Amino acid sequence: MIEEKFRRAMERFCLPPQCRVTVALSGGMDSVTLLWLLKELPGRRFELEAVHVNHGLRGEAARRDQAFCAALCRDWGIPFRAYEGNAALLAEERGLSPEEGARALRYGFLDPLADGRQGFVATAHHREDQLETFFINLYRGSGSRGLSGIDPRRGGYLRPMLEIQKAEIAAFAAEKGLPYVTDETNADSAYQRNFLRHEVLPLLESRAEAHFSAGLAVSMQNLREEDEALTLWAESVQDTRAEALAALPNAVLKRVLDRMAGKPLERPRFYEIAALIRAHPPAGQIQLSGGRYFRLEYGRCVFTAPAEEAFVAVEPDVPAYWGNYRFLVRSEEINSPFTHFQIDCDKISGSLTFRRKKAGDRFVPAGRGGTSRLQKRLKNDRVPRTARDLLWVLADGADRIVWAERYGAAEGYAPDETTKRKFSVEIGNTKGDL
C-alpha cells in the first residue's frame, strides 16, 4: 500500500529524465524509508544521492548519525556527502529559535541542490508533519497559504510521502527490516513541534467521535485550493494604479503587494499601505525596513530601495563603469548649430564626475530658465520621486552640474556659435542599450 501511494506521488512530479534527486537523510526512520523507496522505485530514470547535515547541536550523537548515514549509503551503493555547521551560532546571529536556526542551516546547504530543473531534493515529510505544520502556522497567525500546510512540490523540493501516515511508515520499516537511528531530542516536548506531536495531536485524536487528522487534512486541502485560486487572481493583476488596486479584496491585494515588494509584507505594514491606497491621495509614502519605501507617485504604487551613492570619474572618450551602468563623454570637433544636449568642452573646468542627484543641487537647463533648484524643477515637471532619487548628473571639478539626465546641458555650458569642440554625453548599461 505504501509503495503504491509513493509511486503515484512520484509520477505526479513529472521529473525530467536523467535529473538528480538528493535525499535529505537524517538517519531516522522516515528519511531511511524515503531513501529505500526511491532506490527501489520501478522504472527509476533519475540519479539518486543522499546528503546529511550535521547541525552541530548534539555532539557525539550527531557524529554517530553522520557515520550511520555514510555507512548505510555505502552498503546501498548510493553516493553520499555530509555537511557540518553550527546551528546554535546561526540562530544567535539571526535572532532565531534553535529549531529555526537548524532549519536555516539545513536549507542553506540544500537550496543549491534544488534548482527545480535538473536538481531536486526529496524530504521525508509525512501526513503528521502536515498537521503539526498547520498548528505551528496557526500560532504564527498565518493565512490560507500557511494553513494549507506543506506543498508536495515547492520549486526543486519534493515531498512524496505527505499522504502517508507515520504508522504506515513504521510498519513498512519493520516489515523490510530497515535500519535507522533515533534522535533522542525528538522525545523532548520543550520543542514546539514535539509538543504538538506528543501531547496536542494525540489528545485531539483521542476523541472517540472524531476523525480529527482526516478532517483536518481535508480542510488543509480546501485551503490549498483557495490559496491557489487567490494567487492566480493576484498574478493576473498587472495594473499598479492605486484606483485599480483599491478595488481588490485584501486577500488578493496582499499577494499583489508582496509580489511588487519582492517579499511578504508584515501584516501591520500591509494594512497601513492598503489604507493609504484606498484613501486616494495623489502622493504619499510609508517607510519599510532596510530604508525601503512604499510610495504613491502620481497615482501609481511603487516600492523603492535606497539609492546608492555613486561617484564615477570620467575622461573624454574613455568609457567608465559603475554596476550595470556604462558612461561615456565623447569629444567631437563641430561646426553645427546650437544644441542643448551636448556640452562645450572649453566651458568646463577641472575633472568630470558622474554622480546621483543630491540635496541642494542647483541646475538650470540651457535655454529654459526657471528655478535653479534641481529638486523643485523635477517636482514641477512631475518626475516620479523614485526616478528623482536615481537621476544622474555630470559635475565639474568644482562640483557644479554641467549636464543632467532628462535635461541635457546646463545654462552656460551648452555649445553656441563660438564652440569648436563639444562633449556628447552617453549613459547606458553594460549590455549596450544606450
Task: Tell me about this structure.
With 434 residues, this protein is an alpha+beta fold. The chain contains 15 helices and 18 strands. It has helices at residues 2-13, 29-39, 59-76, 87-94, 98-110, 127-139, 144-147, 166-176, 192-205, 212-236, 242-246, 250-261, 267-279, 374-380, 385-389, and strands at 20-24, 47-54, 80-84, 119-122, 153-154, 157-158, 283-287, 293-297, 300-304, 311-314, 320-322, 325-333, 342-344, 352-356, 392-395, 401-404, 408-409, 421-429. A hairpin with a 3-residue loop joins strand 16 and strand 17 (408-409). Helix 4 (87-94) crosses helix 5 (98-110), helix 6 (127-139) packs across helix 9 (192-205) and helix 10 (212-236) packs across helix 12 (250-261). The model is unreliable at 334-340 (pLDDT under 50).
Question: What topology does this entry show?
Answer:
Elements: H1 2-13, E1 20-24, H2 29-39, E2 47-54, H3 59-76, E3 80-84, H4 87-94, H5 98-110, E4 119-122, H6 127-139, H7 144-147, E5 153-154, E6 157-158, H8 166-176, H9 192-205, H10 212-236, H11 242-246, H12 250-261, H13 267-279, E7 283-287, E8 293-297, E9 300-304, E10 311-314, E11 320-322, E12 325-333, E13 342-344, E14 352-356, H14 374-380, H15 385-389, E15 392-395, E16 401-404, E17 408-409, E18 421-429
Parallel strand pairs: 1-2, 1-4, 2-3, 4-6
Antiparallel strand pairs: 5-6, 7-8, 8-9, 10-14, 11-12, 12-18, 13-18, 14-15, 15-16, 16-17
Helix pairs in contact: 4-5, 6-9, 6-10, 10-12
Give the neighbour order of strands across the main sheet: 3-2-1-4-6-5
Low-confidence stretches: 334-340
The helix tally amounts to: 15
Task: Calculate Rg over CA atoms.
Answer: 30 Å
The biggest beta sheet, please? 6 strands, mixed
The structural class is: alpha+beta
Strand segment tally: 18
Principal-axes geometry comes out as elongated
* Gap between N and C termini: 63 Å
Helical residues, percent: 25-40%
